[in-house]
What we know:
Blueprint (H helix, E strand, L loop, with lengths): L15 H12 L5 H22 L11 H6 L1 H7 L1 H19 L6 H22 L24 H27 L1 H23 L10 H15 L10 E6 L10 E9 L5 E7 L10 H15 L4 E5 L4 E4 L10 E3 L5 H13 L16 H15 L5 E6 L5 H14 L6 E5 L2 H14 L5 E3 L11 E5 H9 L17 E5 L3 H13 L3 E6 L8 H6 L9 E3 L1 H6 L6 E5 L3 H5 L1 E2 L5 H11 L10 E2 L8 E3 H14 L2 E2 L4 E2 L1 E5 L3 H14 L8 E4 L6 H9 L7 E4 L12 E6 L6 H8 L19 E5 L3 H7 L12 H15 L3 H4 L2 H19 L6 H4 L2 H8 L10 H11 L10 H19 L4 H18 L4 H5 L1 H6 L3 H6 L2 H11 L14 E3 L11 E3 L12 H11 L4 H7 L4 E2 H11 L8 H8 L5 H9 L3 H13 L5 H17 L20 H4 L3 H16 L3 E2 L1
Parallel strand pairs: 3-4, 7-12, 7-13, 8-10, 8-11, 9-10, 11-12, 14-24, 17-25, 20-22, 20-23, 21-22, 23-24, 27-28
Antiparallel strand pairs: 1-2, 2-3, 4-5, 5-6, 14-26, 15-16, 18-19
Helix pairs in contact: 1-2, 1-6, 2-5, 2-6, 2-7, 4-28, 5-6, 12-13, 13-14, 15-16, 21-22, 26-28, 26-32, 28-30, 32-33, 32-37, 43-44, 43-46
Amino acid sequence: xxxxxxxxxxxxxxxxxxxxxxxxxxxxxxxxxxxxxxxxxxxxxxxxxxxxxxxxxxxxxxxxxxxxxxxxxxxxxxxxxxxxxxxxxxxxxxxxxxxxxxxxxxxxxxxxxxxxxxxxxxxxxxxxxxxxxxxxxxxxxxxxxxxxxxxxxxxxxxxxxxxxxxxxxxxxxxxxxxxxxxxxxxxxxxxxxxxxxxxxxxxxxxxxxxxxxxxxxxxxxxxxxxxxxxxxxxxxxxxxxxxxxxxxxxxxxxxxxxxxxxxxxxxxxxxxxxxxxxxxxxxxxxxxxxxxxxxxxxxxxxxxxxxxxxxxxxxxxxxxxxxxxxxxxxxxxxxxxxxxxxxxxxxxxxxxxxxxxxxxxxxxxxxxxxxxxxxxxxxxxxxxxxxxxxxxxxxxxxxxxxxxxxxxxxxxxxxxxxxxxxxxxxxxxxxxxxxxxxxxxxxxxxxxxxxxxxxxxxxxxxxxxxxxxxxxxxxxxxxxxxxxxxxxxxxxxxxxxxxxxxxxxxxxxxxxxxxxxxxxxxxxxxxxxxxxxxxxxxxxxxxxxxxxxxxxxxxxxxxxxxxxxxxxxxxxxxxxxxxxxxxxxxxxxxxxxxxxxxxxxxxxxxxxxxxxxxxxxxxxxxxxxxxxxxxxxxxxxxxxxxxxxxxxxxxxxxxxxxxxxxxxxxxxxxxxxxxxxxxxxxxxxxxxxxxxxxxxxxxxxxxxxxxxxxxxxxxxxxxxxxxxxxxxxxxxxxxxxxxxxxxxxxxxxxxxxxxxxxxxxxxxxxxxxxxxxxxxxxxxxxxxxxxxxxxxxxxxxxxxxxxxxxxxxxxxxxxxxxxxxxxxxxxxxxxxxxxxxxxxxxxxxxxxxxxxxxxxxxxxxxxxxxxxxxxxxxxxxxxxxxxxxxxxxxxxxxxxxxxxxxxxxxxxxxxxxxxxxxxxxxxxxxxxxxxxxxxxxxxxxxxxxxxxxxxxxxxxxxxxxxxxxxxxxxxxxxxxxxxxxxxxxxxxxxxxxxxxxxxxxxxxxxxxxxxxxxxxxxxxxxxxxxxxxxxxxxxxxxxxxxxxxxxxxxxxxxxxxxxxxxxxxxxxxxxxxxxxxxxxxxxxxxxxxxxxxxxxxxxxxxxxxxxxxxxxxxxxxxxxxxxxxxxxxxxxxxxxxxxxxxxx
Length: 1144
């Protein structure tokens, strides 16, 4: 057989439009790299457009440029990770050839050509009716270097000519599509092509590997180096020879560094040791250290050490003055960043001796906080610190003084300040500008990045987006891993860690957290983020100490009993006229029944009662702190539940107090276009409003010393938020009531039992991890695919086809991940492993499944823009799993799908897409359908109905306004001492024991108590010895004395942690599924489940009291008229209670 003239000869006959530019690239790789790179890009674009034109399964993106076509999800899934990354490399290098002054190098153009070759053989193998004869890439067919390369201007003209050709081709294609006969022929052709593609992909041919694994790994390292601005083709960078290696290693004493990164003065800044993919990167540490020794001997300068396997990279600066332990980094540092690191070895000062600006941080505790951070960084060699400081004590001022000290001491050059809201970012920048006027600052939520800025202010989402953003095609990342030397996290708490952990993993910087959350209520994840032990912050200055020092004023906390807010509205307690209104508003039109009561949780959510609001406003104006000689209500913030609630309060205020004028009260929330201007007026002593009704906007970060009244007219369950809200009133205000008459306290009115809640549960409700919907779907698919691998399903082809489809989808999602994303880079090892051959997924091990769930599921891309469709996907997947596992939860999913079918069929058949699925929508409402449904049927159902979810009306509870007479018991107003809450120094015995139990709630016996599993006496005795240490946590007898009752340890633990919701549902599943119940009865059981989830156990007597009298004043016996049903409920309650006790 004769030797072909080109590697691309397989394209010449069938695809001349692809062959010609590919051949052009091949001819000029070495002689004209710019022309070759641009030609490769043109061939790539021609091929991609051909695929889109001929593959009807692909989704055409909103834009039709090459980047959009290449990144479209369906196309990426088709290619897989390796082909996509190769094609993207060709695109980027082609753009560089057309638009950058610096031409691509010959090796780069050669890499692009080999990537193009791999992509084109993939296209030919997938879409050729007759399988092409494909050879391995032959480098010998490339001509040697010759004539001069194309200039940038010539390259741009070539690109312009190409784009003009594409426009003309698009115009002709549009004309063709307009002809009905030709359109029919085109559709037939597309259908035929789908058959060819399906056959070829089902019977793949072995494609030659264009680039070896070693070269692929090297390219990842090269890419990271390029992103940091390094030219890996520059002289002396790669395989640099050093002398002075131990003779035991090499008799010649020579060695070869994988990479050396040089400064302009010829001194080494860093040495990089690369290891194989499968090797731990730490294996390169000793060898890299030897190379660093040699370079130091040869040049007089010790370089920074990097060692990497391409997936994980570690940095070590082992110079005696900066000898931090090795740490993992997200990439390499730029030349300037490495220069700064080396300069600090000799220029940075001892932080423990550095001066603190008294003009910024003039209070003793601010200086002590800064000194504690200095010791942690300098002496303890730690890189994280957490400051707990009460709101109003000067967290931002302390942070500014810290930054000032670290800058002057030579420890940092660039600083990032992160907050969770734009208003807080803006406020922090203004504060730093005041304290450090010479420091260049930029707020990137409002301003353009500036590399000259020494301090950047941002929200978390903005910074996430900026990290992955490019300045222009082919440019380095603006924010590389070493860009910042210090990150300050405002209000560091659990939610920050959960959502934005990737930011802290990406930047290699010192880290300082600021929080006002009391010490005892900070969760362990927050401490872990800063490298601290639980309940051991770097420094804590809490509210009680600040009040004692007279730096803050104390709250005068009033718990105000408002009947409806605490007990709900009971029909039998209303007047006759009110009963008529009640019946008119709440009668069920279908049944004619009237509920016995409306729960307190309905108030201010969808039920707005005029008298309730009026009582609150009158009480606040009567008992609130006054100014101007007692004639005027002082500045007051009222925390409302929602915008509708706030508007209703404002309307009632104007009705009650018209003489105070229209500007006295204003709603300040996100619905107000001029909220900032209103806030500025509220902050001014001389300007109205006096009463600001807030919905979240004034809860945190607002510094208004004039505030003397806070009104909690909503329930708060987050401890962090509660203390932030309380902090709106703590600031000092001299001369507020006249010369020499300072603000001495502020009043907190609580109408929603928040004080009682946090008195019992100081840590508040700790939200469970909010797993993104896309991650839940990925995990559910993976779990289902693994279940279908079991022997019981292997013989059934329909089930195995479903399994293949699930795995195809999962593999496609992983293969389509963007390797340029910094979050993906952090998990690159796992992406590489599972993005390759699809067959890798067919026999997953338990370790594989664990790696997929922990490392790749969080990266799962969002599928489309329809959230309701994705929620339906998850519901159907969960139903499949429930059916397989014979879980009682299946009934709930079935009912929800049946209801969706009913709502669509009864309300939306005017929509053609809904009408088309009418038969299926009727079927899902019938019991017979669910009695014989199989998993493949459910997958078909999911595909047919998911896109109909967007037509459903969102359930909206109609708003009801009522006029029932509420009662405020002024004699029952209780003053609470809340100043010391949350302080570990003042923590009660009960709180110490409770905190220990909550911190150890995953202990096996505690977990069994939470999940309603029986425990033995031996297990309980062992747990007792663990909890009660005889010192800080005392003994069981101490607990009984504290509680004033002989409650068992199991019951006590249940009362703290509640019963696991799923366990509670499981306990009542048989009762719910085994009989036909009325809506009120189902509601009653669900209320009982909720009660147990919060309280752990329940006394039978409680079933005759509120909240179980909401549907009938007789409670359980009124709702359940059959004695057998009541007995069964009692039996279940006893069973749940008994499991909190030890078995004999």
